[in-house]
Amino acid sequence: DAAAAAATAPRLMPPPAAGAVRLLGGVVGRCWRAQRRLVLELWRVWAQRARDVRSLAERDLRRDERDTALLALLTATQDAWWLHTVVGSWKNLVCAQALERVFAAVA
Predict the structure, then answer these.
(1) pLDDT averaged over every residue in the chain
(2) How far is CA 32 from CA 26, 38, 39, 45, in A?
(3) Which pLDDT score is estimated for 30?
(4) What's the predicted TM-score (pTM) here?
């Protein structure tokens, strides 16, 4: 009786409909995977651009720091050159005066 009842009972889904559901499920899965790939690619591009912007800002900051250090170095070099020139001139003057005194004493 159970076998006869199962044979005569209406099926919930006929076999062609089951195939269509499987086909539709496959399409939905492929669509979801394609959308996921698209979203991940967009996120990757966004993250790369954000990194590039940060990198550019850091590079600009380093350039400003390098320019400041270079300006300080040039200023210090100019100051050192000026000091060297002044001290050298003073030394020459002192030596010339000493030589004049020596020659004056000899003469």
Answers:
(1) 85
(2) 10, 10, 10, 20
(3) 82
(4) 0.42
**Measured in whole angstroms, how far is the alpha carbon of residue 25 from the centre of its chain?**
43
Cα angle, residue 30 at apex, residues 24 and 35 outer, rounded to 5°: 125
Q: What is the pLDDT of residue 40?
A: 95
Instruction: In whole angstroms, give the CA distance from residue 54 to residue 50.
Output: 6
Distance between CA atoms of residues 64 and 73, nearest Å: 14
Three-state DSSP string of 33-54 = HHHHHHHHHHHHHHHHHHHHHH
- Eight-class DSSP state of 1: -
Residue with tokens 């070099």: 77
DSSP 46-95: HHHHHHHHHHHHHHHHHHHHHHHHHHHHHHHHHHHHHHHHHHHHHHHHHH
User: What element of type H or E holds 28?
Assistant: helix 15-106
Token pair 């990194």 is at which residue?
A: 51
